[in-house]
Amino acid sequence: MKTEEKLKTRSGNQCELCESKSGLSVYDVPPTASNLADREIYICTTCLSQIEKKEAPDANHWQCLSTAMWSEVPAVQVVSWRMLNRFRNESWAADLLDMMYLDDENLEWAKQTGDHEGDGSIDLHKDCNGNILVGGDTVTLIKDLDVKGSTINAKIGTAVRNIRLVHDNTEQIEGKVDGQLLVILTKFVKKQ
């Protein structure tokens, strides 16, 4: 039986974290080798995008961890512990963390991503108005920009289509202006 089929059966064909029944997929709980059912969980797209820090975390969505954390599946326990740590400054999550128990092996696995360190906040690419930018968006320049090392002057109101996010810097995006690929600061763009 394929791994996905085993996970569908184990989860009752619903998200193993929030019990959603739509947009489900297999998630390899890092760090792990793929195709190990005990290191994979079956989750929805909302949980996946927030776990992978592609979307701002929604505390209301994660109230489901009060149930998921008691799962007998170690991978579900590990992800529950990691997500609770992201919200540990909120009383509900701190209370759940105080009640939760992981054996030494699973606790070591849970700590490997470092979610228990720092303040749990994530940085996202945002435009000048605070709107979250994603790859493929179209943005408009809100200021005339001189391009260093070029004669191009990108004018206010210029549309930059199909942007790419600079993964190691949330204050920068890449996009083409007049056929030339430029790095643009997010504070100078507005999402369309």
From TrEMBL:
Residue ranges annotated for the PhnA protein N-terminal proteobacterial domain, each copy included: 6-52
Domain of life: Bacteria
Pfam families linked: YjdM
UniProt xrefs under InterPro entries: PhnaA_N_proteobac (IPR013991), YjdM_C (IPR013988)
Entry protein name: PhnA domain-containing protein
Species of the source: Paenimyroides ceti
